[in-house]
């Protein structure tokens, strides 16, 4: 097979769409005023800012004034959690419920809140990578001020029962935040129907520019500032608005929403072809539920190999992939998500994430299947762990 170049890391970031770039340019060339300025150049910028806000709100199913622009998913997660903690703290409610598979933007913010005296319950997920609303229900206490559950997981793509959890939190009078960074632009979301009080999104995950995102906050829920300064964003997020990026984000989101169903159908068909192909590799397993997963997410564990060497060899073959294991402080710890679905450490080390989209082709999928199979076989041929498995000194975990 001739060498191809394939970007299969869309969960890390996406290519900025033509529509987004086109929408950004006028705000760097003609309409460069500061939206806070009273003159006409400022007012034109202000109008564009509010138009972008209305368009983001329309896709989420909320009111325009419930959308706050931020620098991205991490900032939105930080502000949502800190705000809920402040609200709870004032009422003596210092317990937070979240899950074991959250993004570090949530987990590390929770760690910071723990140092302030908050108690955190991280609810586990099943082998399918999905938390049940029953488990969330059981974790909620009298002093719980917040439930935060991600909409879809960034490593294994599993989609969580957000509407069920939203209804539960509403019934029990607890604030509900969802990190929807992987879901926005890919799945139908309606914050009102799903009883979501706060939602984080990030433009660069849906073909918008990097460094911009939004936080939806239901009206009446008081936000705490994370960035202090000017009165931008209704006084809740200081700093001159990144208008080019915000305009690009709105355009990218509208485009994603308009094409959502057709893109999802195409991506799903390609995803399932890739899953079927990789499943033929012996002693391998798909991570996460086969159906309740993002249209473009493929995550596998291969027994007897190291994810990092797999990535390097795939890169040589022109394939940009991810291991799914977080590289923390220089040491290669296996991913907390892969461990949370019950994979042992040695299996979690051999994980691979390929995140594709509707623009990929069947030829690219087949190229990836062939190359992953080839690289896995080569690495196993050099692996002492594999040799022990083969000669019966240790036994296989994956069928
Ligand atoms: C990418 C991502 C984030 C962080 O978003 P940034 O805009 O890169 O800060 C947070 N949560 C999830 C689930 C993500 O995939």
Would you kindly provide a written description of the structure presented here, covering whatever features stand out?
It is a single chain. This protein is α/β, with parallel strands linked by helices and 399 residues long. It folds into two domains: 6-15 and 260-390, Aspartate Aminotransferase, domain 1 (Alpha-Beta Complex); 18-258, Type I PLP-dependent aspartate aminotransferase-like (Major domain) (Aspartate Aminotransferase, domain 2), CATH 3.40.640. The chain is built from 14 helices and 14 strands. The strands form four sheets. It has a seven-stranded mixed beta sheet with strand order 2-8-7-6-5-3-4, with helices on both faces. The mean pLDDT is 96. The structure holds pyridoxal-5'-phosphate. Residues 72-74, 77, 103, 105, 150, 154, 179, 181-182, 202, 205, 213 line the site of pyridoxal-5'-phosphate.
Summarize the structure.
The chain is α/β, with parallel strands linked by helices. It folds into 2 domains: 6-15 and 260-390, Aspartate Aminotransferase, domain 1; 18-258, 3-Layer(aba) Sandwich (Aspartate Aminotransferase, domain 2), CATH 3.40.640. It contains 14 helices and 14 strands.
How many domains would you count in the coordinates? 2
Shape: globular
Bound compounds: pyridoxal-5'-phosphate
- Tell me the helix content: 40-55%
User: Oligomerization state of this entry?
Assistant: single chain
Q: Distance N terminus to C terminus?
A: 29 Å
* Biggest sheet layout: 7 strands, mixed
Extended strand count: 14
Strand order of the largest sheet: 2-8-7-6-5-3-4
CATH superfamily of the largest domain: Type I PLP-dependent aspartate aminotransferase-like (Major domain)
Which spans of ≥5 residues are poorly predicted at pLDDT below 50? Answer: none
pLDDT averaged residue by residue: 96
The top-level CATH class of the largest domain is: Alpha Beta
């Amino acid at each position: 097979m001739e060498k191809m170049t394939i970007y299969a890391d869309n969960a890390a970031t996406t290519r900025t769409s033509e529509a987004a770039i086109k929408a950004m340019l006028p705000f760097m060339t003609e309409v460069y005023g500061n939206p806070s300025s009273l003159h006409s150049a400022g007012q034109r910028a202000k109008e564009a800012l509010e138009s972008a806000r209305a368009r983001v709100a329309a896709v989420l199913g909320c009111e325009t004034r419930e959308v706050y622009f931020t620098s991205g998913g991490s900032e939105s997660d930080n502000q949502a959690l800190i705000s809920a903690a402040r609200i709870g703290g004032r009422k003596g409610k210092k317990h937070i419920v979240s899950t074991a598979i959250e993004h570090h933007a949530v987990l590390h913010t929770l760690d910071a809140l723990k140092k302030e005296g908050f108690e955190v319950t991280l609810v586990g997920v099943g082998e399918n990578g999905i938390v049940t609303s029953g488990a969330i229900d059981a974790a909620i206490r009298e002093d719980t001020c917040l439930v935060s559950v991600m909409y879809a997981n960034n490593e294994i793509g599993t989609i969580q029962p957000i509407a069920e959890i939203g209804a539960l939190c509403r019934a029990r009078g607890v604030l509900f935040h969802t990190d929807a960074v992987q879901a926005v632009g890919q799945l139908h979301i309606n914050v009102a129907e799903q009883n979501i009080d706060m939602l984080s999104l990030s433009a660069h995950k849906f073909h918008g520019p990097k460094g911009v995102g939004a936080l939806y906050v239901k009206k009446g829920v008081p936000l705490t500032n994370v960035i202090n300064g000017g009165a931008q964003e209704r006084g809740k997020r200081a700093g001159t608005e990144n208008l080019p990026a915000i305009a690009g984000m709105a355009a990218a989101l509208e485009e994603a929403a308009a094409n959502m169903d057709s893109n999802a159908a195409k991506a799903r068909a390609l995803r399932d072809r890739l899953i079927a192909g990789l499943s033929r590799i012996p002693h391998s397993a798909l991570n996460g539920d086969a159906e309740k997963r993002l249209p473009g997410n493929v995550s596998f564990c291969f027994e007897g190999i190291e994810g990092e060497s797999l990535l390097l060899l795939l890169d040589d073959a022109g394939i940009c992939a991810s291991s799914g294991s977080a590289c923390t402080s220089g040491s290669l710890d296996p991913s907390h998500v892969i461990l949370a679905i019950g994979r042992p450490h040695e299996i979690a080390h051999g994980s691979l994430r390929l995140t594709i989209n509707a623009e990929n082709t069947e030829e690219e999928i087949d190229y990836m299947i062939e190359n992953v199979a080839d690289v896995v076989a080569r690495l196993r041929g050099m692996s002492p762990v594999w040799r022990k498995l083969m000669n019966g000194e240790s036994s296989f975990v994956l069928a």
